[in-house]
Amino acid sequence: MKQYSIVRIKKLNREFTFNESHMGRRSPSVGDVATIVDVYDGAFDLECCDSDGCTIWLEIFDSKDAEFEILDDLPSIKLPQNDFIELFEFMEKANELFHQSTKYSDPDKVKEFAQANYPLIRKFYYEILWDKLPEAEKERRLNE
How far apart are CA 100 and CA 105, in angstroms? Predict the structure, then answer.
């Protein structure tokens, strides 16, 4: 199992107890589907989210804490460092704009953001990210 793999809990070998200091709203259960957020030496963070992307639970699992079924173990996609930095800087700007409703509800700020950033959005969408999509995913999107 690796970072960003999607797994289903088949069996829990220890009891997880929820309290106010935990992130989310309950403890892990058999049948839950989660994403491996981070991998450590012999342990990993798993996050289970609802359909809106809100955290149901986030827990550190030791390798002996549960049995899992791997549902999606996508290969990593390599991105040159300069493209990664450029994409990160764009996301930083987007986060700054969309983080507060007072900013994104201002039509002038949104227009300014779009005019300043569309060339970069176009570059990443058409020239970088599309090319890295698996063929089956490209076909699925073209047939939507």
Answer: 9
